[in-house]
Design brief:
With 104 residues, the chain is α/β, with parallel strands linked by helices. It has four helices and five strands; from the N terminus they run E-H-E-H-E-H-E-H-E. It has one domain: Dna Topoisomerase Vi A Subunit, Chain: A, domain 2 (3-Layer(aba) Sandwich). The longest helix is centred in the last third of the chain and has 14 residues.
């Protein structure tokens, strides 16, 4: 049975191409992007006063969102979930970005 709280995206929605909140993060003066795992996390971090926060739409960073980060920021701070999937995703994202950005 499907989780009644699950978010269902419309057919054809390319979540692999989305870096949620990038337009707001890119408009800040910060050279550091805070990268979180989902858009609810992004909203909470943004509401706490950190404007340069973006969210992966899942646990993977695909080429288009990686390109956006590389073009706009000098470093990324990876704040993915602490579960096993989040830790593995952190390692994959850091490996993808390390050649062009500082990762922490």
């Amino acid at each position: 049975m499907a989780d009644s709280h699950a978010i269902v995206f419309p057919a054809g929605f390319g979540k692999s191409q989305v870096l949620f909140n990038f337009h707001r993060a890119a408009a800040t003066w910060s050279d550091t992007a805070l990268v979180v795992e989902g858009f609810f996390d992004c909203l909470r971090v943004s509401q706490a006063g950190f404007g340069s926060v973006v969210a992966l739409m899942g646990t993977e960073l695909y080429e288009h969102p990686a390109h956006l980060l590389r073009d706009r920021f000098r470093r990324v701070l990876l704040l993915l979930d602490g579960d096993e999937a989040g830790r593995l995703a952190r390692d994959r994202v850091a490996a993808r970005l390390r050649d062009s950005l500082e990762c922490a």
